[in-house]
Design brief:
The chain is α+β, with helices and mostly antiparallel strands. The chain is 22% helix and 20% strand. The longest helix is centred in the first third of the chain and has 18 residues. The structure holds 2-oxoglutaric acid (AKG).
Length: 294
């Protein structure tokens, strides 16, 4: 075991936990720079100021599946210690990657609205976890997360359409999720916050003059099956049918991996481009075809 029983018990009780020391200082610095560069590259054609973006985009810039077109980020997304920690917190033998994503809350960026993650995913079973890596740490001022402790085990599940923030009454949608008070967790640089897919969470606005840079990986128990409803590129790209185990090169095993072997990415998503929700495109979920860049 990599983690102490205390961390595991805290995660199982609260639905989130903050763990120090999974990356070396050298790794931390290197990946911070690589992820920042990748986000700059993905967003280089978007010159809009924050005020012209949608309310959703004002919560964060979202760049998904960086592991596919930025090979230098792959060792972070499939980092053996982070992925092993995720498996231990869930109490499972193996985890797969659903997708990775950078979530950059720009200076002046608004609150991330309260939500659970799991309703966005087309999975039947719920052993899911996000590793949330804030490269400069997070504070109440720059967009730290707030979690409702124990909300992952209340049995409540609710889809909150944060993509339509500003257009829909998200407070009404989220009402059932507010089963307790949010606990805001400042995460020191060097620590990683993990939360369960059913944990209700939000993030504070960024009132500083610096972007809050975060990379995340969403991991799920190997063996979880596709739900009967909904679409998501993580299953549609590989033609996974409802009820079938979610297992393909789009969602590869993240832990355990043979030492030194990282998954190879699937073919790019261009064939699905005609028919995808706009937020996937806006968020860079569909990398441009062409040579991989680092
Ligand atoms: O980084 C944020 O502002 C929100 C993150 C989040 O909701 C998540 O990782 O599930």
């Amino acid at each position: 075991m990599l983690l102490s029983d205390t961390f595991v018990a805290r995660f199982r009780r609260n639905g989130y936990v903050i763990i120090p020391g999974l990356l070396t200082d050298t790794e931390w610095t290197r990946y911070a720079s690589l992820v920042r560069d990748a986000v700059l590259r993905r967003t280089r054609r978007d010159t809009r100021p924050l005020s012209e973006k949608s309310a959703y985009e004002q919560s964060f810039i979202q760049c998904m599946n960086l592991w596919e077109d930025f090979p230098a980020i792959r060792p972070l997304t499939f980092h053996p210690k982070i992925c092993q920690a995720a498996a231990e917190l869930l109490g499972v033998q193996a985890v797969r990657l659903w997708h990775d994503q950078a979530l950059f809350k720009e200076a002046g960026g608004r609150r991330t609205d309260p939500h659970q993650d799991f309703p966005y995913w087309t999975m039947q079973e719920t052993e899911t976890i996000t590793a949330w890596i804030p490269f400069d740490g997070t504070t109440r001022d720059n967009g730290c997360m707030g979690y409702i402790p124990g909300s992952h085990i209340t049995g409540v599940r609710r889809f909150v359409n944060i993509f339509q923030a500003g257009k829909e009454d998200l407070n009404a949608q989220a009402r059932d999720l507010l089963t307790g008070d949010f606990v805001y967790e400042e995460v020191p640089r060097g620590s990683i916050a993990f939360h369960h897919g059913l944990t209700t969470h939000e993030a504070e606005p960024n009132t500083t003059d610096r972007t809050r840079a975060v990379h995340t990986m969403i991991l799920f128990r190997d063996g979880i099956t596709r739900s009967t409803k909904g679409r998501h590129f993580a299953v549609d790209r590989a033609g996974i049918q409802p009820g079938a185990p979610i297992a393909s090169d789009v969602t590869p095993i993240a832990w355990p991996l043979p030492a030194g072997r990282l998954p190879e990415p699937p073919p790019p998503m261009t064939d699905l481009l005609a028919d995808v929700p706009h937020q996937w495109l806006a968020s860079g979920a569909f990398p441009e075809p062409g040579p991989a860049s680092t």
